[in-house]
Specification:
Radius of gyration: 21 Å
Oligomer: single chain
Strand order of the largest sheet: 1-2-3-8-5
Distance between the termini: 44 Å
Helix content: 40-55%
Order of helices and strands: EHEEHHHEHHHHHHHHEEEEHHEE
Largest sheet: 5 strands, mixed
Shape: globular
Length: about 425
């Protein structure tokens, strides 16, 4: 059976995720058909479980903004992405038992953490990011052309940033990468491997917190520990541990992959790169347009578990349904964006949904935007002749990764 029907509508066979694409940076052609003819589609996952896929902008935004619903929690009977015995922690249930995914407990955690990811605080981190980005580019140039931009810049920069923020040793970056991949990959690891990775990660973070408690620093973990002591209402030890784990995974895996995809997308059509060279003031809007245009977000979207009946487009989805919000498909909805399949580096406003919406939108979006802007500015300044070293069609996607990515981004200059 095919991954998707040729002309989807309510009577068509089940759509199978992930949908295939024509090229590593291209959207699945089925998205446009689904938005037009079957915006509330039944989908089958690699696990064999079924769920519901939303592909229109208004539908996706409304569900993401609804405070009643959140990512599936471990106790929910939600649809699993990965087959039994495979897949990372995040592909089948909530990442942690101690961080509540809904209700007042979740909002308390977000209020506590949100003050550390404001635009003002992130701006204060920018000089350090710029210095590190330039140093990594210099090292890449010294090693010679061609180079893998993802390995030389895309991966190490976010690791250094999040490690500096949390107070974790950057020399452990390879371990963080392995643990992140084990958390987020649908197909690469066995159940035993992912459980072992999770146990190792828990042990590592518990030991790091104990070390910070004994010898505090100026980092976020030390600050959270001190607040918990002073206020008596801060984060518990399990919450501290799982917060650190969540931030390490989210703070480097998604941004590392996005740096590589951003450069590949901008170099895939040389006029885009040249327009930024001619007018670097477009960097801010260009970054958001890249985020909107990214079709390689893993193929599943963001999950929501319905704890009660929910109506969308005239259809009533019963409580217990797992809904997959197709962020990338929604970001290309012609009802919300003019010329949605074109990249307009001047697009403003740009209300894309890449960071989600509502109470569960990405806490670190200011940090991610800043890192992308810093990288793009440094590359334009230091390597104006940068180009892809292989045809776009030869770029290879990372199989099974729920946040999407390219295996490598070969460049020359």
């Amino acid at each position: 059976m095919t991954n998707a029907v040729e002309h989807p509508d309510q009577n068509d066979p089940i759509v199978r995720l992930p949908l295939p694409t024509d090229g590593p940076l291209d959207p699945p052609p089925e998205w446009e058909l689904l938005r037009a003819r079957c915006p509330v589609a039944t989908v089958e996952l690699p696990s064999g479980d079924t769920g519901t896929l939303l592909t229109r902008y208004d539908h996706v935004k409304a569900l993401l903004s609804d405070p009643r619903f959140s990512r599936p929690a471990p106790e929910d009977d939600s649809a699993r992405i990965a087959p039994e015995g495979a897949g990372g922690v995040s592909t089948n249930s909530g990442m942690s038992l101690s961080l509540q995914s809904r209700g007042e407990g979740h909002q308390r955690w977000r209020r506590h953490m949100g003050k550390y990811f404001t635009a003002r605080r992130v701006t204060a981190l920018r000089p350090g990011m710029e210095e590190m980005a330039e140093a990594l580019i210099d090292a890449m140039v010294e090693s010679g052309s061609p180079a893998d931009l993802k390995a030389a810049l895309g991966f190490p920069l976010p690791v250094y940033v999040i490690c500096d923020l949390l107070g974790a040793p950057a020399e452990d970056r390879d371990r963080f990468s392995y643990w992140s991949d084990a958390f987020l990959n649908v197909s690469r690891y066995s159940g035993a491997e992912t459980r072992a990775a999770h146990e190792d990660f828990v042990t590592y973070m518990s030991e790091l917190i104990a070390a910070k408690r004994a010898e505090p620093g100026e980092d976020l973990i030390s600050t959270l520990i001190e607040e918990s002591r002073a206020e008596g209402e801060g984060l518990t030890d399990p919450e501290l541990r799982d917060t650190g784990m969540a931030l390490l995974v989210a703070g480097h895996e998604t941004t590392a992959n996005m740096i590589g995809k951003m450069v590949a997308m901008l170099l895939a059509d040389r006029t885009r790169w040249d327009s930024l060279l001619a007018d670097p003031s477009l960097i801010r809007t260009a970054v958001d347009e890249v985020l909107r245009s990214d079709a390689n977000l893993g193929g599943y979207g963001v999950r929501r578990y319905l704890t009660e009946d929910y109506e969308v487009d005239g259809a009533v989805l019963p409580g217990g349904t797992t809904v997959f919000c197709g962020l990338s498909a929604a970001n290309r909805d012609e009802r919300a964006f003019a010329d949605p399949d074109g990249m307009d580096l001047t697009r403003s406003p740009n209300p894309h949904l890449t960071f989600g919406a509502g109470a569960h939108s990405c806490l670190g979006q200011s940090l991610a935007r800043t890192e992308l802007q810093v990288v793009l500015k440094a590359l334009l300044h230091k390597l104006p002749s940068l180009d892809l070293a292989v045809p776009v069609a030869r770029l290879r996607q990372i199989e099974g990764l729920t946040v999407g990515g390219l295996r490598e981004v070969p460049v020359r200059w």
